[in-house]
Amino acid sequence: MGRLVGLSLMGIALALLGERFLALRNRLKASREVESADLPNCRLIKGIEAGSEDIDILPNGLAFFSVGLKFPGLHSFAPDKPGGILMMDLKEEKLRALELRISRGFNLATFNPHGISTFIDHDDTVYLFVVNHPEFKNTVEIFKFEEEENSLVHLKTIRHELLPSVNDITAVGPAHFYATNDHYFSDPFLKYLETYLNLRWSNVVYYSPNEVKVVAEGFDTANGISISPDNKYIYVADALAHEIHVLEKHPDMNLTQMKKVLKLDTLVDNLSIDPSSGDIWAGCQPNGQKLFVYDPNNPPSSEVLRIQNILSEKPTVTTVYANNGSVLQGSSVASVYDRKLLIGTLYHRALYCEL
Fold first, then answer.
1. According to the annotation, is 223 in a ligand binding site?
2. Deepest of 99, 196, 282, 312, by most Cβ within 10 A of its Cβ?
3. Are 68 and 47 spatial neighbours (Cβ–Cβ below 8 Å)?
4. Which element (helix H / strand E) includes 188?
5. 95 and 175 share a domain?
6. 65, 56, 113: which is closest to 87 by C-alpha?
7. Measured on CA atoms in the order 207, 140, 46, 32, is the torsion positive or negative?
8. 245 in the same domain as 101
9. Which residues form the catalytic set?
């Protein structure tokens, strides 16, 4: 009788593991292929060879690139080179990406930048917020941008128990931000288990010098985060759920989940907002399995979506760019400025297109 019970329990456990495995493949869109829908006026950006995971553009056309992200088990084309922040002036005729110098005292050897966000204060000071993973830990770095010197002055390193697995960030003050935790745990094995079991413990945190709190939770994998031009709404990409959530922001900085959840057929990564129209531009990965199990003969594809009228009954979703990996592998972000489009990737190249 004891053996029979044991075999029954083993059978149930194996069935559960099998069901979770199939569910994970579906969440990764492991069988999805895309047909290329390239834009006519595009070129790869020289100097970006090992990823540009996030991009943020200032109102004056200066674009910041977060480059060189590394994670355990994630492919890298430059595994021994530290990450950095590059800048490009989109108003120049001859576009070039320059690496910004960072002030002394900051540990450049372990710099591993992920999501980024800018904030312009009332005195026109530009702050750059950078999610950093030094030695695969989690910090948020705050820099002041010195335009004349093409440099970043490091101001502060933030660590907090409510920021165990930070992915992206959107700044709302000189030391204030919302951030996504793509996992509840920081330990790599527990992260994998959390993803495999689809625990949906991912969340959004609000940070200020006076208060740190969880303001939204229940996500599969909270990823990109951005704020509407009128500062009324926070947009959150849930990558493995293939969704974009609209959250209402309140004066106390709490967030309320609205009924609006846009369901898509792709893994949504970073979100950028066109300040002139309010349109959301999303860098997406059509097939997550190809992204995490890298095969140079069958590379991950890229996809850029434009979402118009997100608050309406029927938002318009347009595929602006798609590539099967022959040009661009594993897109993670798309940002626009004056009919110019920048597309970054998790660990590959970056693309400049004229719309």
1. yes
2. 282
3. no
4. helix 188-197
5. yes
6. 65
7. negative
8. yes
9. 114
